[in-house]
Amino acid sequence: MHLHGILRSLAPLIILITYITISITHPLGPPRIASAHPLTLIKRTNHVTLSGMTLRGSQSLATILPLQLAAAQFETLYSGLYGTAVSELSHGNYLGGARSFTLQYEALQISFVASDNVAQRNIPWEFVRDFATMMRIMSLRGYTGCYDQGYWNEVGDFGIYVGLRILAPLGLTARV
Prior knowledge:
alpha+beta; 176 residues
């Protein structure tokens, strides 16, 4: 049986394990007692910056298990994304071709959406290339999660939202 066949047959199990993982990591606990010292947010000093776009927000939605099988799918998704970006850059298309696009591999779907209502700028392929490189390395290190991320330029007038989802069987999108 090919790896693709194994992964297709394991998709419902992976989705179930993901749901269980979320339930375990976010259990309902006893009520918290208010503290005299409220929690404060600490600003990170080591920002992730890709092609002039800095990660300003990230929400991890789920972790996909088993890691070995999921990591192979993630690595293939990010390698395909990297190949697309490099191909576009080699043809001189530096500014990107769209304000939003989606790439799907097997049960994984990644979407990029530009947020710029003034100049209507497209998503730069250099950003997509750098993002795919970073996330491929992270998936090889074991990060197999769904997420929403927001990257903004230094001025704050242009942003790119990136979201990764698992597609459920029958073509339905599972928001985990």
